[in-house]
Amino acid sequence: MAFVATARITVILLLFLVLHDGCVGARPFDAAEALVAKAKDVSVGKVGSDVKSFNVLDYGAKADGKSDSSINFIRTFKAACNFRGNAMMVIPKGDFLIGPVIFSGPCFNPSSLIIQANGMVKARPDISYFTGGADGVDWITFQSLKNGLILSGDGTFHGQGAHTWKYNDCAHKSKCVRLPASMKFIKVNDTIISGIKSVDPKGFHIMVSVSQNIKFVNLDLQAPENSPNTDGIHISKSSKVEISECVIATGDDCVSMIHGTTEISIKNVICGPGHGFSIGSLGHYDNEADVSKITVTDSTLRGTTNGARIKTYKTDSPSKASNIIFKDLTMDRVANPIIIDQEYGNRASTQESRVSISDIHFENIEGTSESKIAVKLICSKLNPCIGVQMKNVSLKYVGRPNDPRPFSSNCTNAKVTYSGIQHPPPCAPGS
What range does the domain containing 256 cover? Predict the structure, then answer.
């Protein structure tokens, strides 16, 4: 992002450091913190005189909440994207209604394209405007933006999902068609999404695929606890994604990370209601790429069905999940605070999961559990979990007072080492 000449040089140098950092164990994005401040400036229109604004109102959009402004948003984006200078698309205060739109690059701007979003943008409620599905149409798609994107503001993207959740049949079908995500980022690099709010998506709030170097900062993602498959941020085949300072209250995983996901940092996130932080489901597709280098830290889970979770199907699709750290997490009345489940979705099947799970760390996990079995490590007989480390786990039972069962851990086919506080008590050796 370049607002003045000096800032342009600084940003280029910062991005170079991020993309070429060869230091082992370095936190991703440390060199790009200045870009977060720039994103905050964007939200209030604090940009340099060299940035040309492209306002959706100037391209015919109506801020009446009734007129379909889809084509006007697309025309505004194309004008900004094709401009041979620094550009900012502006969505001002007001209510806008749009159907499915695709904002596609490559763009010709010398620096990251800016989108200032301060209005209320609503999706068309009728599902007939969307085809959905993995190869179908989501609501707002950003694709092929290799030179970067800054999306910032205090605006709200309302998916009007309550009108369509009744069509979700994933609870009854293993091969269901997902409903449209509110935002999809595909083949997008060097991007910051800051400050915006997502409400009641039809499917996922945010979907990320085949992308790298993306920051999600200070987002507010909201949907009812019973809204189906409304994952907060769903990531696949992507690397170097950072999620921080976000509030996610939804009907499914707060963050879900599936095949081909590497180098993910989740920090200072409040999750709940929802299904927790989930690695998986894995083993769902043929030829899945491995998952590794995932860190979830300094976060709180409130009233979620799961806390720190890894889940895999019992299929013959091999892959690996390794180098995963859950650290400094607070559980507030969580049903399953710590869980590895390699029988997810098809427990009756005699097929063992072929996903190999190793080098998994649960450290400094505290709070309260709704379940008497607060730690569940159910691993594959074919590929036992190895290198699982439990350090300083301090949980208290706050569920039904008349449950006579002991507060405990349950381990199957898991090789676990323990240190520090362990409450509930560790699994018996050889479990």
Answer: 34-167+177-423
275 is a catalytic site residue: yes
Q: Where are the alpha helices (DSSP H) in 54-187?
A: 70-82
Instruction: Count structural domains, the chain.
Output: 1
Q: Examine residue 14 and state whether it is found in any structural domain, yes or no.
A: no
Residue 270's CB: how many other CB atoms inside 10 A? Answer: 17
Q: Rounded to whole angstroms, what are the CA distances from 205 to 106, 190, 235, 323? A: 24, 20, 11, 27
- pTM value? 0.90
Q: Which of 200, 275, 332, 341 is catalytic?
A: 275
Residues paired with residue 266 on neighbouring β-strands, in sequence order: 243, 296
Instruction: From the candidates 138, 190, 200, 252, give the one annotated as an active-site residue.
Output: 252
The crossing angle, in degrees rounded to 10, of helices 5-19 and 33-43 is 130
Residues of the chain with pLDDT under 70: 1-33, 132-136, 171-175, 347, 430-431
Residue range 133-185, pLDDT digits in tens: 455 589 999 999 988 999 999 999 999 999 999 988 776 666 677 899 999 99
Could you confirm whether 252 is annotated as catalytic?
Answer: yes
What gap in Å lies between CA 383 and CA 283, rounded to an integer?
Answer: 13
Indicate which CATH number applies to the domain containing 153.
2.160.20.10
